[in-house]
Design a protein that fits this description.
By secondary structure, the chain is of the alpha/beta class. It has a nine-stranded mixed β-sheet, with helices on both faces.
Length: about 290
């Protein structure tokens, strides 16, 4: 099976601060780190580390060759990542000592992925393959339409969240992933209960309270694994979604894939960096085994 991720690639600039600045406040950063990020890139790396075969479709600018190279080093197929004459997308992240963050995103090349690259990126795919989408890229509707035509399963992470945009995507996808607050806002926007959303399944992530899968007559509650410590919550949701898709692509049953994804996210928040903090499969298996043994 093939897992296609039409997703963002960002350069993350992380400023470590004592607290998130208030409006009008100027504070000094104790540290500056630069690395690979973007919801798409984070999810591709998580999916590969979970055991999936991932083809990434996206765009960088002339300054982003190293970012695409990092994906390739992880084993992601980057044959459909194009270089455009505009800056690579980037994020400016304020990260406080407790692991909380505030983020500013500039789309850059992520906002101009050519339709042709998307269609070409799904060449040869069909039933049994999956597509992952997020809201940091311009090509969601094109990608979803192409995947639907090919009979692929579509997993849509509705973040960054805008209720109107998420509502428009629901008829085009199979699984929508939202956090607790987003789920409530989307349901209120549509005037429906979560269980009534017009998709095959809804995955609601709840941070330290775990996650719940609702759909196909099933409700699967997955508890959170205790994080060793909380260092950086950036990309934790991306880690969860990407790991889930990769584990399913590997052949895991749904509940097993959800359980692994929860453990991977718990390890992720104990480490700095969005992509850099995503654990390996061996680390996740060891963490789960040690936690179960007490």
């Amino acid at each position: 099976m093939t897992l296609v991720n039409v997703g963002s690639i960002n350069i993350d600039r992380v400023y470590v601060v004592d607290h998130i600045p208030a409006p009008g406040e100027t504070i000094a950063a104790a540290e500056l780190e630069e690395g690979l990020g973007g919801k798409g890139a984070n999810q591709s790396i998580a999916a590969v580390r979970a055991g999936g075969r991932v083809r990434h479709v996206g765009a960088v600018g002339p300054d982003g060759g190293w970012a695409a190279g990092r994906l390739a080093e992880e084993g992601v197929d980057i044959g459909h990542v194009v270089t455009l004459d505009r800056p690579t997308g980037h994020a400016v992240i304020a990260l406080d000592r407790g692991g909380e963050n505030a983020i500013i995103i500039h789309a850059g090349a992520n906002g101009a992925v050519p339709a042709g690259a998307v269609r070409e990126g799904m060449r040869g795919c069909g039933a049994g393959d999956r597509l992952i989408l997020q809201n940091e890229i311009n090509a969601n509707e094109i990608a979803a339409g192409e995947a639907r035509r090919r009979g692929m399963e579509i997993i849509y992470s509705a973040a960054p969240f805008v209720a109107e945009d998420a509502a428009q995507m629901l008829p085009l996808v199979d699984v929508v992933v939202v956090n607790e607050i987003e789920a409530a806002q989307l349901a209120a926007h549509l005037g429906l209960a979560i269980e009534e959303l017009p998709v095959r399944a809804v995955l609601v992530t709840k941070g330290a309270k775990g996650a719940v899968w609702i759909g196909q007559g099933r409700r699967i509650e997955v508890p959170a694994w205790p994080a060793p410590r909380v260092v950086d919550t950036t990309g934790a949701g991306d880690c969860f979604t990407g790991w889930l898709a990769g584990a399913l692509d590997r052949g895991c049953a749904l509940e097993e894939a959800l359980t692994e994804a929860s453990a991977a996210a718990a390890l992720k928040v104990s480490r700095k960096g969005a992509a850099a903090g995503i654990p390996t499969r061996e680390e996740v298996e060891t963490f789960m085994r040690d936690a179960r043994q007490g």
